[in-house]
User: Which sequence fits this backbone?
């Protein structure tokens, strides 16, 4: 157990001394997961709003698929993306395999259903009377959607935070499609796997603590952004 | 909504501040965990990268997976250690020619208490037989790596069918993890000497029981572990950087780099982890020339 204590000291040391390798890994982790959440949000918000507000054939099936997707095993996503991006695969010409774009693509696929599903749930949770009221005030469908999205912002932000939390901490997909290449596709989670594999538990614990810290800061930032509306809820 | 936009802006900013890598030519080397985890590639590669102005991307996986990656054209060359699989890879047309790079040896490690009494066995096959008879715990990589392939060959030599026995634990893990598990549960396992030496201080419960303290003391020639390098066939896989791969082969087999391989690890472990060049033929004894 003393590894955890030593790991804690080591984590502080790595961060304070500005160890270039550690910081490069942290930067890449943020970059990959940040872009994945960004794309997941761009696609997930409209998708969630659409599912919440429109009635169409196949909607239930789509919702069931989204809910299934919220629990997609990262390693399965990684495997499919790997086969897609392989030079022998349909998207091989992109030459993305074992590069950060491949990792962003895989993590976007992981984050998207989470963000879309939680956005949908949040909008459905908004007072159902609001919609006819807005319409009677002459709001267009687009204005209604924006208003409902705004009213549901606490839940939506929670969805985005959940998406970030799941991709920054996943290892299965980035390991497969990134290859854990030093200085190029090594992120916090794959570095932790590598250090554990070689028995460098102190360094593994140190990187784990850094990962937890990032996750904490991201969630704290979301709570801050949710601001008054959340405090009202609590 | 504005707050949402602010959050997005923050995320983009966070994402964007990552330093972009300069666009240098890249050579992708699919190899085994032992060459990377031992630190050998970290020690060798900078000189290649400097001389040719390229970046070598090392994908370190088991030999089986390394060859699978290369079979799909996703690597420019492979550095692996399972001769039969390598020959098959070439005969299928995926690889050009194989070059000897270096060799080391496998050893059989297990609990210092040695419950199956294998210490001093002349060959690994004899020791495997004793382990099976005693029903002592044995951990297998179980991942089609070079080490796993070698282990299966030794079981065949011992005329033992280990799969399905309660004492045989197939882990599906890399060498490092397998050694850690082996140490924790008090089992026997087959490992390359280099990985074992580089992790020795983390494996207090394990000792080398068959294979001797150095490669010169290894009495079983079947435990030789030669590493070969094979450029992927650019005619079969058009995306492959064949020119750079050939340069890499010339470089790693050059006397200068071979000398660096020979001395690597001597300072830290008191012996070389890898020996340069072609492995001696199985008939010669002891197994180091």
Assistant:
């Amino acid at each position: 157990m003393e590894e955890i204590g030593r790991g804690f000291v080591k984590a502080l040391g790595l961060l304070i001394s500005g160890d270039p390798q550690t910081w490069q890994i942290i930067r890449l982790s943020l970059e990959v997961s940040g872009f994945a959440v960004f794309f997941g949000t761009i696609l997930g918000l409209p998708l969630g709003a659409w599912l919440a507000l429109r009635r169409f054939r196949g909607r239930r099936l789509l919702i069931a698929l989204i809910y299934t997707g919220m629990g997609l095993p990262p390693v399965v996503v990684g495997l499919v993306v790997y086969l897609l991006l392989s030079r022998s695969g349909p998207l091989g010409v992109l030459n993305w395999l074992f590069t950060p774009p491949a990792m962003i693509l895989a993590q976007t696929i992981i984050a998207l259903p989470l963000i879309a599903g939680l956005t949908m749930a949040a909008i459905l949770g908004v007072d159902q009377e609001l919609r006819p009221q807005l319409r009677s005030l002459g709001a267009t469908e687009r204005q209604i959607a924006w208003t409902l999205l705004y009213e549901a912002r606490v839940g939506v932000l929670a969805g985005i935070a959940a998406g970030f939390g799941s991709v920054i901490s996943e290892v299965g997909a980035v390991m497969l499609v990134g290859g854990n290449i030093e200085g190029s596709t090594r992120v916090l989670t794959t570095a932790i796997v590598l250090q554990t594999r070689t028995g460098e538990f102190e360094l593994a614990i140190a990187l784990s603590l850094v990962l937890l810290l990032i996750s904490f800061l991201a969630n704290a930032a979301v709570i801050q952004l949710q601001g008054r509306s959340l405090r009202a809820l609590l | 909504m504005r707050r949402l936009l602010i959050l997005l802006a923050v995320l983009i900013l966070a994402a964007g501040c990552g330093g972009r890598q300069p666009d240098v030519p890249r050579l992708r080397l699919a190899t085994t965990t032992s060459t990377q985890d031992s630190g050998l590639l970290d020690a060798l590669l900078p000189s290649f990268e400097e001389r040719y102005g390229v970046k070598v991307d090392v994908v370190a996986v088991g030999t089986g997976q390394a060859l699978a990656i290369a079979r799909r054209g996703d690597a420019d060359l492979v550095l692996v250690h399972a001769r039969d699989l390598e020959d098959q890879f070439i005969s299928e047309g995926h690889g050009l020619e194989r070059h000897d790079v270096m060799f080391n040896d496998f050893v059989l490690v297990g609990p210092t208490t040695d419950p199956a009494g294998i210490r001093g066995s002349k060959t690994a096959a004899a020791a495997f037989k004793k382990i099976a008879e005693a029903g002592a715990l044995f951990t297998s990589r179980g991942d089609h790596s070079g080490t796993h392939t070698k282990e299966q060959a030794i079981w065949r030599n011992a005329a033992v069918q280990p799969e399905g026995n309660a004492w045989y634990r197939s882990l599906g893990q890399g060498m490092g993890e397998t050694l850690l598990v082996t140490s924790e549960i008090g089992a026997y396992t087959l490992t390359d000497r280099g990985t074992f030496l580089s992790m020795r201080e983390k494996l207090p419960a394990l000792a080398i029981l068959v294979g001797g303290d150095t490669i010169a003391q290894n009495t079983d020639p079947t435990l030789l572990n030669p590493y070969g390098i094979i450029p992927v066939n650019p005619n079969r896989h058009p995306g492959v950087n064949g020119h750079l791969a050939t340069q890499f082969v010339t470089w790693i087999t050059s006397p200068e780099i071979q000398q660096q391989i020979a001395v690597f690890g001597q300072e830290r472990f008191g012996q070389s982890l890898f020996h340069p060049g072609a492995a001696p033929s199985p008939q010669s004894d002891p197994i180091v020339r």
In short: The longest helix of chain A spans residues 20-53.
